[in-house]
Structure formats: structure tokens, C-alpha cells
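Hi P.,

Sorry for the delay on this. The queue was packed all week, but I finally got your sequence through. Input first:
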Amino acid sequence: MVEPEIQVGLLSSHEISFILNGIYHVVTPKGNPVPTQKIVEGEQQVCWDNGMVLWKGNHFKELLFIPTDAPEKNLFELHNVMIGKHFHWQQHENQSFQGALRFIVEGENITAINRISTERYLTSVIASEMSATASLELLKAHAVISRSWLLAQLTSQQFNDNQPCGSVTDDEIVRWYNRSAHQHYDVCADDHCQRYQGLSKVTSPNAQIAVEQTRGEILIYNGEICDTRFSKCCGGQTELFSTCWEDKNYPYLTSVADPFCGMADQNIVNQVMVNYDQQTTDFYRWTVTYTQQELHDLILANTGIDLGDIIDLEPLARGTSGRIYRLKIVGSLRSLIIGKELEIRKTLSKSHLFSSAFTVEKQGQGDVPQQFVLHGSGWGHGVGLCQIGAAVMGEQGYKYKEILLHYYKGAKVERMY
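Then the structure:
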């Protein structure tokens, strides 16, 4: 297998402003140069116009800007790229990228797509998923799992189901959210796939070194690429796949005790987490308090169902880490069962509850509680590698393969190219 070139969806908007920092060739979908603008540089803008890409007064089905020099010498900068979509850290950034830049029409928006080699893509991914100043062994471990996820996506072994999945009845909402394939590019650049936030995140040579020293390496189990899920903080115990997604499990994604994830001091947190992640400081153990009215309004807004006064939040089923995957919400008008893990987090928060590993404390006199206090642990679904735990392992001197095999039991590291 040779190193793949991939296409990454970066941004969709009615109009997109960008800067070409270097000299680029411009070609049409058939590979022909644009007659009036063969070579361009500097500030540019494209916009949607009647189902076409409008650029410099001309309409195109799509456009491709190809750097004329080595990729590391020519960069393009996109303005107002959204990151953390639908999460509490949602914000916009200007981001710079290597490789070619393609524009296509999707609905009534223009989509910017980066065409780039796999290994260059991964350098930015591991520096976006965590700080590039993290330990080299942690970055190498993350390079392997990020590469594994990508190559599994490209070979269509996994993640090709439409989302959401599950079932909805009058009394029960059970959903899970698979990583579905994108129609016009291989992966997107945000948390839906893997964070890919450009060269500004590559603040240390360790990111490039980690990718180079693990070039082509992936995790394999019984001849297939592993489903290398990962989360920010497992809370002390990793979770089973079936708690969060469809009712199946993988032998290499067993639930493992993870004492490392509770041992992170601020220095390790600073090394692992990018700046906006550090807005969350209590991810290992956390508490959220809702008044009766707040909880009622959240559930109504997120489900469209008025349960009346909320009487109880009753866990019906928990996974191995304590994450709830079936929760009964008891109301004065009716009750509702929700699942799985992410659906519970989405229902009980304006964005996403840190995790579904929580206990419920009801406060107030009488039959109708006045407050609900959720005492929780962990940040994310908890399946596979725990980024905080892996960071501690890296700081304690564990090698990247030891980190990987702590979380993915029985898997093997193999080189694909």
C-alpha cells in the first residue's frame, strides 16, 4: 500500500474568504487551467451564486488551487473556520494549511476541501486533538490511532452507517451516533471525525517527529484495522463499545481500569489540552446542579416532550465504567426512557453533559424535588484510549506501544506502508 492522498472538508459557507500565501495554479474539474487566471496569489473570495462557485466574476462548477512549489513552502489561510460545532467550546478561527485547496457546491453553500497527503494531515491532527507540546510517546500513540481510524475510513471497513441509529417510540428514545461517511470528501476537520485545525497548532517539532517515527503504522486485530475510538477522560475505567453504539463489542475494546487518568497534574493538563479545552477544569470528577425548572426546560427543549414536573432520574442500565445507557426520566405527566450514552448527555445539557457516568442527588421537600445534583466522572464516551490517562503514561516513561496495548488489548502495531 502506498501513502494515500486524502480530501478533508474544512468549511462550508455561502461565501469564503482566503489567502494564498504563495503562488498557486488554478484548474477546472477537467484539469484544465482557468483561461484568464492560470496563476494566482494573495487575498481571494469565492461565493455561492445560483448553484455555482463565483470567483473573480466567473462561474465554475468547482475550482482547484494547486501550489506551484513544495507543499511546505506554499500555504493557504481560511477565514472564520468553525471548530467544536454544537459543543460548548464552539468558536471561529483563521487557519492555515498545506496542500491543494478545492471548492465545490453543496446545497446553497460552498465547501472548502484540502487535498493533502496522509502523513502531513496527521501532523496537524495530533497537534489539534491535543497540544503539540505533549510527550513524544503520547503523540506517537495518537499518531497510530489517528492513522488507524483514517485508513479504516478510507477502506470502508467502518463508520459508513447513516446517523443517527436506534429506535423511537412514544415511551422510549434510544439513539446512537455513528461516524458516517461524507459524500464529497474523505473526512471532515472537526470533532465529528478528527480535529484538523491547521499548522498553527503544530507548535512543537514533536508532532512532526511522532508522525515520522510511526510512519504507516496502524493497529490491527485478526487482520483488520482496529476501531480506535478515544475520549478525553475515561474517569478511571474505560467503557464498552456497546454502551455507546450498536449492541456489539470488540475484543480489543475491553473495559480496563485506568488509574493513570486520575493522576494528571496541571502541567500534564497544559501539555495535553489545547487552550479552549482548558475551559473545562473539572473533567475527572464534576458536579452539575439544575433547578426543577431548568431541568424541565432542558428536557422539553431537547426532546420536544413535556413530562411535567421532573420527579426522578432513574438509571436503568450502566456500562462497566458507570456510564448510564438507559435512563428513565419520571415526570408528573408521563415518563420517558432515553439512551444511549450520548443521547442522555444531549438531553440533560444545552450542549453535551461531560459524560453519562453520574449519580443523582435530589434536593428539596415533598414529592417534587426542587433541585437535581448530578455527580459525575469523566469527559466523553470513555471507549478506547483515554487521552488524559495516556498523557500520564507518557510522562511516566511508558513507550507508545505500551500505551496503545494498555487500551487496545490484544491488538498489534503493523506498518501499512
